[in-house]
Protein 1
Amino acid sequence: MAISEFELIDHFFNKAIKNTQINRLGIGDDCALMSIPDGFELAMTMDTMVEGVHFFPDCDPFDLGHKLLAVNLSDLAAMGANPIAVSLAITIPDVDENWMSRFASGFFQLADHFNIDLIGGDTTQGHLTLSVQAMGLVPEGQAIKRSTAQIGDEIFVTGYLGEAALGLKIKNGYQCASPEPVLAQFNRPMPRIKQGAVIQDIASSCIDLSDGIASDLGHILNKSGVGAQLIWDHIPMSRQVKTYIADTGDWRLPLCGGEDYELCFTVSSRKRHLISIPCFQIGVIEQKPGLRLNRFGKIENMMSKGYEHFS
Ligand code: ADP
Ligand code: MG
């Protein structure tokens, strides 16, 4: 290694704390210290990305830094939590300062956008593996859970489905007439933090879409002990995804493709007039277990398991 572990941390990751009332001590000691304000709970989540599993070896490190943080913030968004601090564990085969600089730029561009402090982490040598632990604040008892969807609730998503899955297809050689916005969504998803905060006291349940709606909405259904019906004509899709489906017949892509990082949430019909964010109603919660799709008047069963690492 050209520079030492401590020089690396100091040079690339040690930044002045912005949220000094909450993040009382950052990088440099054995632990970071956080002070949780009265009336709030700390929401915590962790996601890991492994080279060759979650990203291509030739992935732009700027995009990687962004996406690693984004997928974690997306989990906070899904609970209605406001991100406040993160820690970062990096395992790298060797120190490439150009790579590290671009990675840190992507990471901090998104962290600064949401005013988040990096307060600690770990640095080790090995196969390229990146983990973030993200921490956010949510008013006590107000986090939006997966387990509280009610029969009759309407189901919404915050944006187009299938963008990231189409992005992956394009990376793997599918020819798309205007690939840029699709690839941007795949490479640099924006976590729906604002949307999560806005629906926090309106939504009855929420999840972020990491594995595709068929799988992720399935988690809400299982945890809540309910079922659902989606309406194909209501699934929001970009022109590019519609063209892809017309070209290939692969209409399951927007339902089963992963990594969109939109929010999927349920709202009782009494409260739907309170929703003040752009979103699309795609179906309704039903008593009968399972996930069904109404496609051109024909009802199809849709439960999908999504991506599982050990299967
Ligand atoms: P220890 O050996 O006590 O666990 P380390 O030597 O691993 O401490 O880390 C020294 C300091 O640098 C700690 O405050 C730790 O949180 C921080 N740190 C280490 N790696 C990273 C990283 N990749 N990003 C941010 N902070 C880091
Ligand atoms: Mg120590």
Note: The first helix runs from residue 5 to 12.
Protein 2
Amino acid sequence: MVTLKRFGISIEEDLLDKFDKLIASKGYENRSEAFRDIARDLLVKQKWSDPNAEAVGTITIIYDHHKREISDKLTEFQHHHHVNILSAMHIHLDEKFCLEVIALRGKVKDIQHIADHIIGTKGVKHGKLTATTIEEFK
Ligand code: NI
């Protein structure tokens, strides 16, 4: 059973006005839910500051599969890190470009290392790591 606490916040009128407009545009129904999301995001960021913390994440990359050996390189690297890689989804976007989404679980330092290597692979046009965790919400 989760216990909800209520508390008051002092905030400048202009800042609150901007905050209300922003969260309304993002679809929040009230300030409480927006605040909870901000708090959770800070906790996730804090978690990711510890290299040995347990975390999960996804890497999203776009690459041209015609580029020399890139598909083989990416596959080889992912096999090497199979312990941390939960799943990978590959989509052939058009004649040239592939979209790949790779889900990972493990220590922050291992996920970061894998993401840096994959995103830095020659021929990867764009890549992002989405860093999250479940540890802070239990
Ligand atoms: Ni493809």
Note: DSSP finds four helices and four strands in the chain.
